[in-house]
Fold this sequence. Notes:
8 strands, Arginase, Chain A, 13% strand
Amino acid sequence: xxxxxxxxxxxxxxxxxxxxxxxxxxxxRAMAGARILGSELARYxxxxxxxxxxxxxxxxxxxxxxxxxxxxxxxxxxxxxxxxLAAGARPVTAVNRCAVALATLPVVARHRxxxxxxxxxxxxxxxxxxxxxxxxLGGMVLAGAGxxxxxxxxxxxxxxxVVLGGLxxxxxxxxxxxxxGTISAVSAGEDIVDKLRAAVAGRPxxxxxxxxxFEPGVLATDYRVPGGLTLDRLxxxxxxxxxxxxxxxxxxxxxxxxxxxETDTDAARRLVEAVAPLLDEPRG
Length: 284
């Protein structure tokens, strides 16, 4: 199913988008993955799907080169979010890389400054161009949206509204920022559901998933960090978050070529089933 890029849903449930343009990619697998994941979301939700971004060979370059290449299509996504949120819609988005959130989070913050961003990721993504040793754009997302550097896509995200979940690979500069206590961080332990519930504290939720939050081998993704979540644990987290008002859902870093040997479509279907509580009609 597909819809024109300017289409706006008439309800708050499921303004579905797949973004698969350049966004700091190391390889081409997540662009293909976002296409597949978008299709599986459309199948599950029985919703029209808007696609943004032309898949091109990955540049695997430093942040400045990557951002320059990505900006035109990221601005299209930001404009779509602005339209959707202004209409009272709830975005559900498959993205190739976390760097895409440089476009989405400032718009969410502008329309819903009360929302808590629950960011499930093995990494903190709190670097700036001045602190990053790798120069990887995807590692600078929350810092950019939080106004610690200028991405050209806006900021406005209050870092006190960020809850990191599944965090376990943090660099020293990020650790210093986290030590200030403004940002909540929850590890990927058995008590993650209860700790996330306490950190969210009843606030509306914008949910972001980086597939590297999983234990290596669960799904194909760019980074593999031991000590991650299972799909069953994600389903528990999703069920808890679904008790809150949902502002939007963003799923990223799903790559093709599965470590399990299953098809990419089957793997995407398992991921969609794990987050299904966040995709169903709002409660109440």
